[in-house]
Amino acid sequence: MTKTSTLKELLNQKSILRIVGAHNALGAKLIERHGFEGIWASGLEISAAHGVPDANILTMTENLEDAQIINDATKLPVICDCDTGYGNASNVIHMVRKYEAAGLAAVVIEDKRFPKVNSFIPGRQELAPIDEFCGKIEAARNARKNPDFCIFARIEALIAGWGLDEALKRSDAYEEAGADGIVIHSKSKTPDEIFMFAEKRRGKLPLIAIPTTYYQVTADELAAHGFKIVIYANHGLRASLYAMNQIIGEIARTGSTKSVENKIASLNDVFDIQGMADIGEDEKKFSGKEPIRAIIPAASDYRSQPDLRELLGNQPLSMLEIAGKTLLDRQMDLLRSAGATDICVIGGYQSSQLKVKGAQIITNPDYEHSSTAQSIMYAEQHFGSKCIITYSDIMFDRSILEQLLESTHDFTIVIDRAFQTLPERSKKLDLVIVEKTKTPSGARNLEPELFHRVLKIGKQLDQRKASHEFIGVTFFKKKGGVELSKRWKEALAKFKGKPFYEADSVEKAGFTDLIQYLIDCEFPIHALEINHGWSEIHSASDIERINTYFRNPSQEHASKK
Ligand code: SPV
Ligand code: MG
Predict the structure, then answer these.
(1) Which residue's alpha carbon is at the smallest distance from atom 8 of ligand 1?
(2) Would you give the distance in Å from CA 204 to the centre of its chain?
(3) Does the Cβ of 211 fall within 6 Å of ligand 1?
(4) Residue 233: CB within 6 Å of ligand 1?
C-alpha cells in the first residue's frame, strides 16, 4: 500500500489522527515508535535544523530533500509543510509533481504571500487574495497524478488578524477549489476560536488543528469539536533544543561529562534507533562472508613452570612482553590479520590483569579446579559459524591460519610433523595419530595432502607411534561448534566426578580429552599438517628465540605482511 492510500484510509476512519513534527529521520523513527499515525515535515523544524529562519530562506529542493529523508525512515505517511507553495501557481505545479513523485503522502499550502514568515512572528503576516490562492489549489489538483495524494489548504486569516468571518469565507472558497482538507491555524492561547470556526464552517472537508499556543487542548477535545487531524508541529525540535542546550551547558560549566552521563541517551539507544541490529543481520545474510570469531583460553597459572615464574611475577602468561608487545596483543594481531573480527579471551589466573583492546574478556571463575575444556566452554555463546581457538601459550605464522581457514571440514586442528625431529622437551606434548594416507603406494597425488583424519589425541600416547603434535590451534564451523557443546554437556552428565580420558575427572578435562571424546562419538576430526612455523612459550629459551624472531624486521614483515 502506498503512503497516499494509507493516509486516505486513515482519514476515512473515525478517530482523530495524531501527527508529530520532525526535521530528520531520527525524529521520524521516534514518532513511529510511539505509535502516532503520521509525520509532519515541518517547515519550522527543517529551517531551524538548517540554522536559518522559517521565512522561505530554504528552497523547495532543500525542504523536499529533508522530507524525503524523513519519509524513507518511516512507514508512516508524511504530510509536508510546503509554506505558500514556493511562489505562484506555476511553482505549486512543479512542487506537487516533485512531492508526489517522491512518495510523500500530502502537502499543505498556506494562503500567505511568498515569502512567508512563521505564523508566530508578529508583524509581517500578509494574506494572499482568495482567488489567487484558489488558483494554487486548482493548479495543485491538476498537477497530481494520484487523486489520493492530498492537498490541504491552510487558512492563516486568524494568524493575520483578519477574523473568523474571513477564515470562514476562505474555508468555503478552498473547499470549492478542490482542497482535500482545511488547516485552520491560530495563535490564540485557547482553542476557542478554532472551535468556533469548526462549528460555523459549512463544508465537510477534514479539519486540521496545530495546537502550538493553545497547548492545553487534548486530541479528544479536538475530535469532539470535529477535528480530523491534530499536528504537534514542533515539539521534537523544541525538546532536542532544550536538552542539547542543558547538556552542552553543563559540560561547559563542569569541565567534564561525568554529571551528564546518566541524563543522556546511551550509545546503545543510539545504535538501536540507527538500526545497527538490522545491519548485523543483513551482513550475516547477504555479505556472503561469515564473520570469523576467535577464542583464546588464557586462564592457566603458569607459575609452576620454573623458567616462567620469575619472568611473569603474578601476571598471566598472555601479558608477557615479546619484543615490545604482549603475547596477547601479538595473537590478536595475528587473528585479526587472518580476518577474525570478534575475539574473546577467557581469563582465569589474575584475569583482571588481562589488558587487551577490542576483545571481550570472559572469566572462568573455577580455573583452579578446571582446565582448557571448561574454559573454552565458557565462550560457548561465541562459537558462531566460523570459530578459531588458539591456546594462549603459542605463537605461529599467519600462513597457518590462512590454510586452516580454507578447511572444508567441520572441525580441524593443526598438527606439526616436525616434532619427531626435535630434541625431547620437558613438557608432555599433545600427541596425535592420524589415519594412514590412502594414496596408493608409488603413485603420485596431484593434490597436496594437507588434511588428515585424526584417530587419537592425547599426552599419554606412545611417542613412537604418534605421527604429529597438536599445536593448540583449532578451527570449527557451525556443525563442529554444535557438536562440541552437545558432547561437553553429555560428558559432564555421564562422567561427573569420574576420570575422563587423561583427566582425573571430566571437570578437569583438557581440550584434547574433549576432542578424543568427539572422535569416539564418531564425529570426524580433521587435521591440517604443518612442518614447523610455530612455537610454544614455556621456557626462557622459547622466549629468547621468539624475541629474536620478532626483533628481526624482515621476519616480522614476513609473518605479518
Ligand atoms: C511548521 O511547523 O512549520 C508550521 C506550524 O507551519 S507552526 O510553526 O506552528 O506555524
Ligand atoms: Mg511552517
Answers:
(1) 44
(2) 47
(3) no
(4) yes
Half-sphere exposure of 467 (CA within 13 A, CB side): 16
Catalytic member of 54, 66, 148, 416: 54
Catalytic site includes residue 54: yes
The CA distance from 236 to 138, in Å, is 33
pLDDT tens per residue, range 348-407? 998 888 988 889 999 999 898 889 999 999 999 989 899 999 999 999 999 999 999 999
Phi, psi of 80 (to 5 degrees): -105, 130
* CATH superfamily assigned to domain 3-233: Phosphoenolpyruvate-binding domains (3.20.20.60)
C-beta 234 within 6 A of ligand 1: yes
pLDDT digits 0-9 by tens, 194-250: 999 999 999 999 999 999 999 999 999 999 999 999 999 999 999 999 999 999 999
List residues, by chain if needed, whose CB lies under 5 Å from ion ligand 2.
Answer: 43, 81
**Class at the top of the CATH hierarchy for domain 291-437+447-543:** alpha beta
Range name among 176-185, 200-209, 349-358, 493-502 with the lowest pLDDT average: 349-358
Residue of the nearest CA to atom 5 in ligand 1? 233
Dist. CA 81 → ligand 2 center (Å): 6
Q: Does the CB atom of residue 81 touch ligand 1 within 6 A?
A: yes
Return the domain boundaries, the chain.
3-233, 237-274, 291-437+447-543
Write the single-letter amino acid at 52.
V
Return d(Cα 57, Cα 115) in angstroms, integer.
Answer: 8
Q: Is 0.90 topped by the overall pTM?
A: no
Judge whether 199 and 208 are in contact, CB under 8 Å.
no
